[in-house]
Amino acid sequence: MSFTLDSLLIEGTKVLSEAGVEEASLDARYLLFEAFHTDLTHFILDRFNAISEDELILNRIDQYRSMIEKRSQRIPLQQITGSREFMGLEFYVNEHVLIPRQDTETLVELILKDFKGSKPVVLDMCTGSGCIAISLTKLGLFECVTGVDISKEALSVARRNVEALLGTGGITLIESDLFEAIGPGQKFDVIVSNPPYIPTEIIKGLQPEVRDFEPMLALDGREDGLFFYRQLVLDGRRFLNPGGSVYFEIGYDQAEAVSGLFIDAGFAEIRVVKDAAGLDRVVCAVLK
Length: 288
Description:
Layout: H1 5-18, H2 24-36, H3 40-46, H4 55-72, H5 77-81, E1 83-86, E2 89-92, H6 103-114, E3 121-125, H7 131-140, E4 144-149, H8 152-165, E5 171-175, E6 188-193, H9 200-203, H10 208-211, H11 227-236, E7 240-249, H12 255-264, E8 267-274, E9 280-287
């Protein structure tokens, strides 16, 4: 039987559609490009040409079908390919870290804007893949950035991304339950975090890709989704320089609650910033 790229795409799309994958055609095409090391331009030119059936091509077909099978099990696309683009940079990801989202770019872009031309000392709490810390270091040329996570496995991913995108040095990575392992004398100009903020009960209703395959440590914000914000606001004060700033990613409906935590803790200049979709996405504040 002869194959074409088009016939393989149709085959993969059908499998993913039957599995309930929302963007079945798009995901099948992405995996096809990954397996055959091609792009949209070459696909359009070659899609109806019969594929030679030498060993290399047959191995690529097997690889494609294997990836389609994984995606049909609702394993996230980025975990299958092992990569995710964020802020124009390519990050390695696996099942131990939250897959970077475009929403989080709003958080990074705001800090880059607010500290353009500055060299703030930054703490990225719950660093995960390191996407925030690395983006600030590489794009903002920040020279002193620390990433913290409770997960050894997540820190291993972050370390791999640091080496790939920054080389040696540039970011300090620390295993810690929030501020537990941070020295009492350490001070930062900026504390940034995309903490777990989804209420536990809500997680049950999320898409299988998130609920079943992304790390619960990075998702579960406890009963009301605010557990980690409370800890970060109250404990973070001790680690901020005077006039230091805190930046949090939030859920679309958490702006008022998180702003209230800042007010109660004595912070000032509280701002709520929307993402590209017009939803509340970041709350930031300054220590008086």
